[in-house]
Structure formats: C-alpha cells, structure tokens
Amino acid sequence: MKDLYVIKASGERELYSETKIKEAISRAQVPLEYHERVLSDLKTHLYENIPTSEIYNLISQFLIKSYPVGEIRFRLKKAIMELGPTGYPFEVFIGHLLKEYGYQTEVGIEMPGSCVNHEVDVLAKKDNRVYFVECKYHNQQGVRSDIKVVLYVHARGEDLMAKLPNDKVYGTWIFTNTKFSTDAIAYAECKKMRLTGWSYPQKKDSLQTMIETKNLYPITVLHSLTTEHRRRLLLENIVLVKELVASPNVYRRLDMGRETLEKFKNECRQLGCDQ
C-alpha cells in the first residue's frame, strides 16, 4: 500500500499507520482473527487526507456487525465525550474512578483559601495524601488542556495549601479526557503536579488504562440506553455501568422493555460489569 496521509482531530497531517489501527483494536480486546478483516475493510474506504474521525467511524461500523463487544470498548473515548454537555458528569465520573482506586472523594465542594474561596471539582484523600483535583472535560477531539489550565490550578492549590495545617501531604491533580500541551506537561513536572490525560502518562496511569483495568465504563458506552435513558441517569449522577448494574430499581424505572433489557444485561455481562 502506498503512503497515505490522514488528518488528525488537531488538524495535523500524519502517515496512515496500520500498526496504530492494530494497537487501537487490541486495546478494545478485539481478537487477532478480526485484525486483518478490519484492515481489509478499511482499505476499501481510505483516501488521501481522510480524517481520523472517519477512520474511527468505519472501524466502529465494522465491529458493530462483526464483534459488537469490541466496538463498545473501542468507542470508549467517544463515550466519555458523550457525558456532557456540561462538565459535571465528568467530575462525578472521576470521583467514582478515584474511589475505585482507594481514595475517599468529595465532588464539587467549596474550600477556603488564604485569599479567596475556591471551588474544587474533586477532593481526593488516601492515607496521608490529599489532592485538589481539577477535571477538564472536552466534548470535541483535538482540544488540549494547555499551560493556562496548569498555571491557574497550581495557583489555586498554593492558596488552598496556605490555609491548611501541615499534618498531611497536599497536591494538585488534573484529569482531562483529551490531551495536555507540551508546555502544560513541562510545567506540571517542574511543579510536581499530577496530570492524567486520555493517554498520559503512558502505560498504567493514563485515564484510558485506569478505566479499562477496573472495567469502569461510563453508561454512555452502552448501545442499549437511549439518549433519554442517559439523560435521566446523569440527572441522578449515575455515570458508571457498574453503578447502574448494582441498582436494579434504577434501571427498571427506565422502562426499557424486555428485549432492550436483555440487550442491556448482555452488554454489561460482556464488559465484565455485572460482577
């Protein structure tokens, strides 16, 4: 196959890479037997400067027909973006995620600083550590959390810490469902701030990995839930599939109908969220 360029969500051009496609569908736990079939199907649709979003949609369409549970996992990033339109459900989601990792959490609280009061998206406590967590939610691909975000979160953390006793270790932590700019990462590293983005840091600590490791899938990943179902659940601050599965009275109130309810239960079972 001759060299072909794609257009990323950021507007950048890069070479089309079958290796990246394989990595993406491997993360979605799509069996090897489907990999070449995905690539073959893609080849019939590719053209010069095709947007990566279109490639994503083509893969989703193929997996829906061929390996549905793989498509559910594959669309995880998009599902997180569908938690909007406001950023509050993402804050609730991060609060639940950190709780699953052993933190005590409070979402959307106001705290006094040395100079002014501050709204803290999530207060996370574990052992002797306390983190002031900022959640930067974006509902579009290609948007990065930049240096301005890191600067104001650091300044707010300094003001909050100045008001608190010295019996604990305090820190600032930023979560985003997209990426951080290079300057934002450099400043955060210099100031010992924690950053967690969709694929940052690499390996075990990225947001994607934290979600997948403990099957902390958002309700927006399920095809069995309609837009109205999602809206009603988010109004009740129910953001995790696991949480919904554990609340049969809640999902019964959605009046799904027998067939949809069976589809819902099957999706949850396939995702490992029915434990």
Notes on the protein architecture:
Strand 5 and strand 6 form a beta hairpin. Strands 4-5-6-8-10 form a five-stranded mixed β-sheet. Strands 2-1-3 form a three-stranded mixed β-sheet. It has a two-stranded parallel ribbon with strand order 7-9. It is built from 13 helices and ten strands. Helices cover 46% and strands 18% of the residues. It starts with a strand and ends in a 5-residue tail after the last helix. By secondary structure, it is α/β, with parallel strands linked by helices. It folds into three domains: 70 residues; 126 residues, Trna Endonuclease, Chain: A, domain 1; 54 residues. The chain is globular. It holds the Pfam family ATP-cone. This is ATP-cone domain-containing protein. GO terms for molecular function: ATP binding; DNA binding; endonuclease activity.
Look up the CATH topology of the largest domain: Trna Endonuclease, Chain: A, domain 1
Number of domains: 3
CATH class assignment of the largest domain: Alpha Beta
Structural class: alpha/beta
Proportion of residues in β-strands: 15-25%
Enumerate the spans where pLDDT stays under 50 for 5 or more consecutive residues. Answer: none
Q: Give the proportion of residues in helices.
A: 40-55%
Please, how many helices?
Answer: 13
At CATH level 2, the architecture of the largest domain is: 3-Layer(aba) Sandwich
Our Rg estimate from Cα atoms comes to 20 Å
Mean pLDDT, to the nearest integer, reads 93
The count of β-strands is 10
Q: Characterize the biggest β-sheet.
A: 5 strands, mixed
Please write the string of helix (H) and strand (E) elements. Answer: EEHHEHHHHEEEEHEEHEHHHHH
- With strands numbered from the N-terminus, the spatial order across the biggest sheet is 4-5-6-8-10
Per the principal axes of the C-alpha atoms, what is the gross shape?
globular
Termini separation comes to 45 Å
Organism: Candidatus Roizmanbacteria bacterium RIFOXYA1_FULL_41_12
Keywords: ATP-binding, Nucleotide-binding
Protein name: ATP-cone domain-containing protein
Pfam families: ATP-cone (PF03477), Mrr_cat (PF04471)
